[in-house]
Here is the input.
Amino acid sequence: MSISKIDHNVAIIGAGWAGLSAGATLVRQGVRVTVFEASRHLGGRARRVSLNEGDAAIALDNGQHILIGAYQETLKLMRAVGAPPGHLLERIPLELRYADGFHMRAPILPYPFNLAIALFAAYNLSFASGLAAMRFMRALQALKFRIVPDRTVSQLLAEHAQEQVLRTHLWEPLCVSALNTPPGKASAQVFATVLRDGLTGARHNSDLLVPRQDLGALFPEPASRFIHANGGTIHLGAPVREITHDGKAFQVDGRPDLFSRLILAVAPQHATALIASLEPQCPALGAVRRQVEQLEYEPIVTCYLQYPPGVTQWRPMLGFTGGIVQWVFDRGHLLTPDPYRKPDTPSSGLLAAVISASGSHEELDNDVLAAQVHEEIKDVLFEPKGVKAVPRWTRVIREKRATFSCTPGLDRPAARTPLGGLALAGDYVASDYPGTLEAAVRSGIAAAKAIGVT
Ligand SMILES: Cc1cc2nc3c(=O)[nH]c(=O)nc-3n(C[C@H](O)[C@H](O)[C@H](O)COP(=O)(O)OP(=O)(O)OC[C@H]3O[C@@H](n4cnc5c(N)ncnc54)[C@H](O)[C@@H]3O)c2cc1C
Here is the structure.
């Protein structure tokens, strides 16, 4: 087959948020795409997990996800593929509320008024601490949010004299939630970028966007329908083991189809073998593979606890300090269209406790971990009359390589590679964002551009 006939036929390996973003972007521009996904499910590290508990089929997520208003590209692409964010996401003005009583809420005002009012009106925060936090933000602004040389978040906070209460209730939880890396090893530069976009940008940038439906319905399934409707193909259960390139076209696993371009949109730990399979044809890819190999990873553990219907948490999203639990989400509240929750809705009484980044909890087995989570949260649960808040079942989902470890000065590979027509996509690809949905979506869009078919 001549190169002109196979022009604009793009293979995408991986149907996570990055691969699906690349696919949706390309089919919108009239480009033919074929997506190969190893598993039988769409969404990769942000996917629905179906569970059979007794007679009931329950849709969980592999981990509770939160988006923020600053995820502009994700929100735009959701709209484009027919997944309206207004219906699918609950928009909550930035509010950090902890079980220990600490509480701050940002009013819908432009920066710096939003932050100043949130800090000075915060419950359990002194005026002096509020002032120190504002000074810190002003100092970052004066530096144009550039931290040179890069250092850890803990060092940055110490240099700017941020007291313990600010660290434990504001900066460190923001760092761990956004970078999924403990402050002692997290990049101050990436953290500063997150603060810039989240806190100082447009008024709604800092809003928390909490999914009202499972992650599959949020983007992967609408994106897949969109790709099919626009002439694309998605093969599920199709793990790719080898890619070859004859100087003109790509082939995957020796299949007959020829592709003029290829986007590798798998997680970094899966990318290395596939990059290596192309090295005989393009030895310069060895440097890219080594860049990917040097990445380290951080886990996220999600513990689901199903309490009897009607049991609720004091607030839909609540922070915890001093134990292993960081955040708990009341899915009964968040996934129920009726804000006054009916006890007979499937997710009533279902709580998701999130433990991000590495820590001592990794040593605990699932039953011990779930029992400890219950101990830490039981005092913030409301029990309807005659009902005891004891979990009927628990499920622990461990994502050992949830994201790359976002450390100072990390050298992340670029979307463009030394082999013309081959681009990388994924949350780990070079950008100023940490490993998040927004980074994955942006990388997919960037890879679609980098292969130069539009
Ligand atoms: C528990 C958890 C909680 C998180 N919470 C948040 C959050 O609150 N907010 C946020 O923004 N981000 C969060 N993240 C991060 C976010 O989920 C990821 O950044 C994002 O999903 C990464 O998408 P991706 O497309 O880059 O990679 P992946 O999702 O890893 O997609 C890669 C795909 O490639 C497939 N694949 C691998 N090898 C092959 C092969 N050989 N052939 C074919 N297919 C292959 C995989 O099956 C997978 O579907 C969280 C992640 C986890 C795990």
